[in-house]
C-alpha cells in the first residue's frame, strides 16, 4: 500500500509545492494554517483529529496524537456509517508551541511499509494542518477535532463505552482478516470468530478518552493470523471509540505494532456497531 499510496500522491506534488510557499501548515482544509511559534512543548498537540489527505484513493486520516507525542494515523475511506482502514502511520513525534513534527514515522499496510515525515501547525484538541511525505511523495493534510456529540478527547474514558455486552465488535485487521471481539466489563478481550484469535486487556484512561490495550496477543498462523503478527504480543497498543458521521454508529480503532524477527509489523483492528 505504501507504494500505491505514494504514487497516488505524485500528481499533486507540484501543486503542494506551490502551497508550501507559506511554510509549514499552509495546507488548510478545515485545519489551522500558517506557522506556529516552534520551540519544544511536549504533549501540546495531543488530541484526536479527523483529517483530509490530498489523495483521491485514501482521502481520510483519523489522527491520534498521545500525550507522549506518539502519532497514530489510521488511513482509509470514511463514510457516514463506516470507516475502511487501509494503512497505519505511527511513530514518535514532537510537539512545539502550536506545532507538531516527526521524521521517524512509518506507514504500514498489508503488503509493505514506507518512511513518513509530518510537519504541521495545530490548535491543540481543535485542529491541525500541514504536510505529510510518504515514501518520498509529499502532500497536504488537515482537519479538526470531532464535534462533541461524536467524541471528546479531554473527558475520562469509560469501560462501558467499549464493553460489548450482547453486541460484539465485528471488524477486520489491516490485512483484511475478519475478527469479532468481545470485551468484558472488566476489560478482558476474547475472540468469538474463527480465524485469527486475539486476546488482551483494556483499561480506561482517567485523564483522556482513550483506552490502554495491554498484552495484546495474536494467535498462530495455522489459526489464520498472518506472518509477522502470528504468535506475537505487544503492549504498544491503544484503543479509541467514537461515533461516525451518521451520529449513531460507533467505531472502534485499535492500532498496534509488534516486533517479529527483528522487523516491526503494524496493524489496526477496525470495527463498528
- β-strand percent reads over 45%
CATH class of the largest domain: Mainly Beta
Main β-sheet description? 8 strands, antiparallel, barrel
The rounded distance between the terminal residues' Cα atoms is 27 Å
Helix content: under 10%
The low-pLDDT segments are 1-25
The name of the CATH architecture of the largest domain is: Beta Barrel
Query: How many helices in DSSP terms?
Result: 3
> What is the strand tally?
18
The coarse silhouette is globular
Supply Rg: 18 Å
CATH topology of the largest domain: Porin
Write down the secondary-structure element order: HHEEEEEEEEEHEEEEEEEEE
Number of domains: 2
Reading side by side through the largest sheet, how are the strands ordered?
Answer: 1-2-3-4-6-7-8-9
Structural class: mainly beta
Structure explained in plain terms:
By secondary structure, this protein is mainly β. It has two domains: 144 residues, Porin (Beta Barrel); 114 residues, Beta Barrel (Lipocalin). The chain contains three helices and 18 strands. The strands form two sheets. It has an eight-stranded antiparallel barrel. Strands 10-11-12-13-14-16-17-18 form an eight-stranded antiparallel beta barrel. It is globular, with a radius of gyration of 18 Å.
Question: Helix and strand layout, with pairings?
Answer:
Blueprint: H1 2-9, H2 13-19, E1 47-53, E2 60-65, E3 70-78, E4 83-92, E5 94-96, E6 99-108, E7 113-123, E8 127-134, E9 137-145, H3 159-162, E10 169-172, E11 178-183, E12 188-191, E13 198-204, E14 211-218, E15 233-234, E16 237-243, E17 250-260, E18 263-272
Antiparallel strand pairs: 1-2, 1-9, 2-3, 3-4, 4-6, 5-6, 6-7, 7-8, 8-9, 10-11, 10-18, 11-12, 12-13, 13-14, 14-15, 14-16, 16-17, 17-18
Amino acid at each position: 500500500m505504501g507504494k500505491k499510496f505514494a504514487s497516488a500522491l505524485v500528481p499533486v506534488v507540484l501543486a503542494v509545492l506551490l502551497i508550501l510557499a507559506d511554510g509549514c501548515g499552509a495546507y488548510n482544509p478545515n485545519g489551522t494554517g500558517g506557522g506556529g511559534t516552534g520551540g519544544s512543548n511536549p504533549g501540546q498537540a495531543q488530541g484526536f483529529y479527523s483529517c483530509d489527505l490530498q489523495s483521491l484513493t485514501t482521502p481520510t486520516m483519523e489522527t491520534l496524537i498521545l500525550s507522549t507525542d506518539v502519532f497514530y494515523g489510521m488511513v482509509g475511506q470514511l463514510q457516514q456509517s463506516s470507516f475502511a482502514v487501509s494503512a497505519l502511520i505511527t511513530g514518535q513525534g514532537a510537539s512545539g508551541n502550536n506545532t507538531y513534527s516527526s521524521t521517524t514515522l512509518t506507514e504500514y499496510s498489508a503488503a509493505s511499509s514506507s518512511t513518513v515525515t509530518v510537519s504541521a501547525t495545530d490548535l491543540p484538541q481543535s485542529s491541525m494542518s500541514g504536510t505529510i511525505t510518504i515514501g518520498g511523495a509529499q502532500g497536504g493534510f488537515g482537519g479538526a477535532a470531532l464535534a462533541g456529540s461524536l467524541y471528546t478527547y479531554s473527558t475520562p474514558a469509560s469501560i462501558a463505552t467499549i464493553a460489548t455486552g450482547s453486541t460484539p465488535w465485528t471488524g477486520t485487521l489491516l490485512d483484511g482478516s475478519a475478527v469479532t471481539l468481545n470485551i468484558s466489563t472488566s476489560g478482558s478481550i476474547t475472540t468469538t470468530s474463527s480465524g485469527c484469535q486475539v486476546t488482551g486487556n483494556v483499561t480506561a484512561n482517567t485523564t483522556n478518552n482513550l483506552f490502554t490495550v495491554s498484552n495484546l496477543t495474536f494467535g498462530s498462523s495455522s489459526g489464520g493470523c498472518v506472518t509477522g503478527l502470528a504468535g506475537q504480543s505487544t503492549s504498544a497498543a491503544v484503543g479509541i471509540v467514537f461515533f461516525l458521521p451518521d451520529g449513531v454508529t460507533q467505531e472502534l480503532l485499535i492500532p498496534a505494532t509488534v516486533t517479529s524477527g527483528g522487523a516491526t509489523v503494524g496493524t489496526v483492528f477496525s470495527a463498528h456497531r
